[in-house]
Amino acid sequence: MMLPSREQIERAAYERWERRGRFHGADREDWVAAEMDTVFELNYQTVAEFWLAEPDQRVIGDVRRPRCRFCEQAPPRAAFSCVRPAVPELVGNSSLFTRELCDECAQQFADTIDAEFARFWESLEALRAGTASFREIRAPMAIPIAAYKCLSRMALSLMPEQELSSFTDAIEWVSNPDHAFDRSLFDSSGCLVYQAHVPYRAAWAGLSCRIEEDAPFPYMIFFLGAERLILQMHLPLCALDEDLDGTEVRIPQRSFSTGTGPDLKTSTCLVLPLKSAADPSRTRRFRLLW
Ligand SMILES: [Zn+2]
Question: Mean pLDDT over all residues of the chain?
Answer without folding.
Answer: 90
